[in-house]
Structure prediction request, 1155 residues.
Amino acid sequence: MNTRALRSLAVAAALTAASLAANAQEVLRIAYIDPLSGPFADVGEAGLKQFQYLADQVNKRNLAGGVKFEVVGFDNKTSPQESLNVLKKVIDSGFRYIMQGNGSSVAIALSDAVQKHNERNPGKEILYLNYAAVDPVLTNEKCHFYHFRFDANSDMKMEALTTFLAKDPNIKKVYLINQNYSFGQAVTRAAKADLARKRPDIQIVGDDLHPLGQVKDFAPYVAKIKASGADTVITGNWGTDMTLLIKAAKDAGLNVNFYTYYGGGLGSVAAMGDSAIGKVKQITEWHANVPTKETDRMVNEFKKQNPKLDYYYGRAGTLMFMLAEAVKRAKSTDPTAVAKVMSGMKMDTELGQVEMRAADHQMIQPLYISTLYKQASKGGPAEVKYDADNSGLGFKTDARIEAYVSAQPTSCNMKKP
Amino acid sequence: MNGAVLRFKPLNVGRYVTWGLFALVLVLAPVAFPQGFAITMMSQMGIWIIFALSYNMLLGQTGLLSFGHAVYSGLGAYFSIHVLNMIGAGAFAFPVTLLPLLGGLFGLLFGVLFGYVTTRKSGVAFAMISLGLGEMVFAASLMFPSFFGGEGGISANRMVGKPFLGITYGPAIQVYYLIAVWTFAAVAAMFALTRTPLGRIANAVRDNPERAEFVGYSTHMVRFLMFALSGFFAGLAGGLSAINYEIVAAESVSAQRSGGVLLAAYIGGVGFFFGPVIGAIVFTFFVVYIAGLTKAWLLYLGLFFMAIVMFAPGGIASIVLMNLNVAKHGLFGRLWKPYGWVAAAGLLAFLGFVAVVEMTYHLSDTGGGTMKLFGLSFEVKSLAPWLAALATLGAGGFLYRLAWNRFRGEWDDIQRIIAEKAP
Amino acid sequence: MEFFLISLLNGVTYGLLLFMLSSGLTLIFSMMGVLNFAHASFYMLGAYFAFQISGHIGFWPALVLAPLGVAVIGMAVERYGLRTVHKHGHVAELLFTFGLAYLIEEAVHLIWGRAPVNYGVPKDLDGTLFMIYGTAFPIYRGFMMLVSVLMLVALYVVLTRTRIGLVIQAALTHPETVEALGHNVPRVFMLVFGGGAALAGLAGVIGGNAFVTSPGMALHVGAIVFVVVVIGGMGSLAGAFIASLLIGLLQTFSVALDWSLGGLFKPMGISFAADSFLGELWNLTLASAAPVLPYLLMVLVLLFRPRGLLGTRDT
Prediction:
């Protein structure tokens, strides 16, 4: 950093410190842009409640150096175009921080719009906190300084997943079944490349791409998997496409393990029910039965306040606490100042150290592979303390994959202010 | 359809005044509502006006019920954004201002391509073909990411090429005026089309295809021409939306979009040229503004649509025109008071209804807790607010019935007088 | 052979479920000329009613009560909604059901929430009926087939052998004459609409636990039932039956085939790069396009045989 930038930073810091002193109760408002009506409203609503709860935690424990956090929900109907309308509205109302997670389509549209807005309106920058959209392009070709991703992207998850698979000598034949759109295609591609690198002896016995949300009956696909003699299935399917697949597999007595991205997705566990026990595995950055103390307390407290909902995103805590710490260190709520602190920031969490990599603003964090079992209180393994979707089923850790394993090289070429 | 009879006739002031006013509204709207969000909404309204009018060329004018109209606007948008990206990459120079025209040409191309086979049928068969075609194009949009951009869609930067007279299309207001100019041109062109022999014959084909065929017109050819031209205007709307949002994703060819334009056109009134204009404005207002206020917007929109279908199948335009007709005969003075009563009672019932709906949504989403409504804060699980809301709804509904009956009597009386006056 | 038999079974069961879904729609369309867009919503209501009822008094009562509940709602819709709209023409009727589908979905959101509910297969029907080459054939699939066939037989008997059936048939072609003979045609319409809704509801009771009971389930099957009805021929029950089986088998078998357009050229030594637009098209396998094939089939049928397989009149 050259001296001029340092000086201007010092001036900015002094100015904001002064303004902080003048207004001790400064509020940092975050616009939460996700579906709050329509078919995906429950996912959006659950996330909103959790972020609001976490903002409350930040405020109670005064983690942001005197700044209060507030999370306000805006409905984007899972539509990229609607999200852009909402973004305009949010900017009009003076928000400088936005967060979003459901759907890479929305994420790419928003990230793009934020980048253009920031270029066209210097001094009025918007900072975009992405907590769940996993398309790798967001931290590669389409990366920019004001976008931060707190979930592992889909290639990182596959890296971790295949590392785990490679250690299991019983796995000989793998079947890939995915939705025929960019994410499903990316999962297929990454699975093939990673397996060929790590375990060339594993045979890919099938590779199916089916239209997104169009398949009513998965029995034919299951018959195909059965005929191929696969012992393991890898799928990035989510929602109905996943629950129908698992149910059809159970009906046909197909005895294979399913490695999924979204086996624990909101509502999926309840929909799959007992047909998923011991068969469905997921790769996530956290699940409720990872032993922790502070997070455990929050899981309990959140459940007490919202009996219908789960504390679902472990990374939501990481996001809010990292943002709070960054605001405290920057002594400012200005997005540029906060982004400068957060870029490359390391933080210790209960799950280990995490890093917001400076090169592409991708969070590097440990990942967990877990399997669905009955809850301990319903006769399942003792580790399964909490269930998902109030279904009596919960996840049990199979393995923890350290942060460095899943880290991927990036093609991001970021312009920094 | 009664639309054929009640043709739009501006009050004696003449057509130029109407069009002048339309242009004036387009020019002055951003002055009245300068906020960024309002500009966004009005830009979207402009795009939807073109889109809904192009839809009405099929439904209202030719009698073709389509469930896949988004295909043409969506493909127009996709091609426009690819061209925009090529301009940005320096492949060739082309003014962004004229880009929507290219979108329209691509819409026309697909209108010709798909239209030639699909318009051989009309009625339910046509509706089902359009539905199937829409599903196939949507499925394809997800399967072929190199053209459709996959989940993220295709994004672009509209600030390409040399600025012309300082117009860079960076600020939203410049894009608004671009949309406004195109909207005015497209509306005028589509209106002119209704006055051409083709437009007239299209009406004939809608009302009585056998007779039109008998007179010597090929119904297939008429439907095909109207369909292709409608594809052109849909593509034009698509091109504008590509410039406005700088992104085109799979949703632009989705069944929701096709359903949306049907709703918009029908709410406005398909029997009148200006109906879909009103419909597009109301629909966009719902989707963009009301949706920001309440989670129940889908329910309100659905109910509103059903109410229109059941009680005012001519759409909002028919209600407006009937009142204008009364005013033309100088009898509107008699309606002020009954209207006032109806509005007051209706407002009361509406408030009660909204309260019940909002409380139900709140209860269903959170299972209890305090909520805020109309500036009041209360516990949603307690009985009192429910009683209050239901009482308001009941009283409002009762009064509304009374007021409506009175209004109806007056209205029928006026209609009788007008009928007697008529030669 | 093994794979062929299993696929055949899968195809037939799926086809029979499609028939359950579409028979009610065919019935309503042939009688009233109304293409009911809310038909799949009645299917969804059936599933949710069954979920609710079976939670209290078990699956078997739900099998009877849930379709009845849906029938009542269907009749109310006809009596207080469609009948008002009828005078505005078929487009208005169609749009009315279009709006109704929106409303039913929102109502389901409100009452049962937006996430899927856990409506499972009843204990008595959970298990394996028989094994075929090591693949289990679940009892529940057998049950689905049974109900569907029973439904076809019952419909046939009611329509051709009972008085009300004959009145319905007559009202289909000569409503004025039937009216003149003293039959209450509007009431017949109401009963038919309720009956059609009940059939959809029954399909929901059976399909809801075989698949997933969620607010998205109506949208999930919404378009495919139209395809069945159109291909079979508007208003033809037998046509709908054949079309259902045809689509079931078509989809099931095309999943099994990894054919692609590009594959045709392989023997000639021509291959296509995967990352170009045309490459994606050439390399698209039949398996991955399977769920879209019915729409293609529908468009082709409408263009070349507009009355469908067994229809008696053009759509």
